[in-house]
Amino acid sequence: MSPVGFDLDMTLINSRPAILASFAGVARDTSTAIDLEAVDRRLGIKLDDELAVWFPSDQVVAAADIYRRHYLQLAEELTTVLPGAHEALAAVRAAGERVVIITAKHPISVQPSLRAVGLAADELFTLVHGPEKAAVLRTVQAAAYVGDTPPDMAAAVQASVRAVGVTTGSFSGHDLTGAGAEVIFDSLASFPDWYRSAF
Hints:
The chain contains ten helices and eight strands. It is an alpha/beta fold. It has two domains: 4-14 and 80-198, 3-Layer(aba) Sandwich (Rossmann fold); 16-78, DNA polymerase, domain 1. The strands form two sheets. A six-stranded parallel sheet has the order 5-4-1-6-7-8. The chain has a two-stranded antiparallel sheet with strand order 2-3.
């Protein structure tokens, strides 16, 4: 047995309302037109990469500071736990394994998000996305990675771990399968039974 990696946003927590409200705050504060539907379609990428779509490179750092100010004010109020998240983490721990959360989120945004829903990681890796997640999965010798985006699935495949997709984010089961998902769930409610039978 080995640790199991989990993405955070839209895998364990519904952070969409807080994220989109924070981007709306950035748009207001900077008088910049930001298409929230476009942001929503890309949920899961690094904040700086998303902001680079809307701001010149020399303004991204300042925009990120504004975003995080809004997010820290909104996270605990607007973040909710996704169905099955508590049970999924409990299943891993019941097997004597560690829960590793691997997320593109900034560390100062992760803690209020976890507090809001009563979740905790045994190990936490922040500011990682795409192939960077694969490197972490190899380092911790994970057995599987659970996520909601095609880059999550690709990272699992690259790391040679089992790729578990959940359609609780912005991507369909077809999207996730196309990126290498071995199994697709509508929610993490199905994860514990699968985990106990797969390992």
